[in-house]
Amino acid sequence: MGKVTVVGSAAMDLTVHVHKRPAAGETVIGSRLYLSPGGKGANQAVAAARLGAETFFVGCIGKDGYGEMIRRNLLSQGVDVSWLEDTDACGSGTAHITLSEADGDNSIVVIQGANALVNPDLVRRAAARLKESDVVLIQNEIPADAIDSVLDCCRTCGVKTILNPAPAGGLAPETLLKATWVIPNEHELHAWFPEQNLEDVLKAYPGKVIVTLGEQGAVYWEKDAVVRIPSYKVEAIDTTGAGDTFVGALGAALSEGQPIKEALRFANAAAALSVQQLGAQGGMPVREEVEQLLKG
């Protein structure tokens, strides 16, 4: 069992189901409101824990009802929350998700809340936990100085890191160089490198930048060529959290010492299973489900 530590965001997801997204100035009638724990950091921690990794979460929540629900949920999923701090300075983070039935996709507005208080001081308090990890996961829903602090700490002590630069924007290009692996989707990659095409970026950062392409799988550069790891064809019900499932699964696989190609196949399988259920965490699979899909 590998040890995965996630430093990142925790939130409550408020998902509205609609037939179609409203245009500017338009009001539409929704069919359902779904309340569930989320936040990219917490999602990735749950994914890793369900897939067998010994998982730890470093973050911040408000002293409110949402915060208590977030803490209880992480504990119920087997995530160690010893480094999850609470505050009365602001409320817990929230994500407001519109799920369109017409095109089977979603749009999301994130309110940082207490996630904005994940800072270098908190990272320093959790340094001992980071140093004992096999892989550390970070996302872009916490402040940039906290991300840099995590990457600096892990580089100093030789711990491998996965940086998921989502949502796009706000990070300096040199931050990329500090991470062992960087996992953007196409949109996030374009935001970071607006004047370069996909192949040129992969070639510039061989083995470091791994781009997720949804139904087209994931790609990276190795030995003078693009390597594509194909996805699994499934009928998607809700894509919310698929990217987080991928990153959490990748972290779990790499923490066990799986080679990168095998780890990416494992992550693709986990993500494919996740989109067949509602909610960011609701569809995240357990280890046996992923292994069964991999066996065909």
Automatic annotation (TrEMBL):
GO terms, molecular function: ATP binding; metal ion binding; ribokinase activity
Note describing how the cofactor binds: Requires a divalent cation, most likely magnesium in vivo, as an electrophilic catalyst to aid phosphoryl group transfer. It is the chelate of the metal and the nucleotide that is the actual substrate.
Keyword set, alphabetical order: ATP-binding, Carbohydrate metabolism, Cytoplasm, Kinase, Magnesium, Metal-binding, Nucleotide-binding, Potassium, Transferase
CDD domains found in the cross-reference section: ribokinase
Tagged with keyword Transferase: yes
Chain positions recorded as K(+) binding sites: 238, 240, 274, 277, 279
GO cellular component: cytosol
Protein name: Ribokinase
Originating species: Paenibacillus spiritus
Source species taxonomy: Bacteria, Bacillati, Bacillota, Bacilli, Bacillales
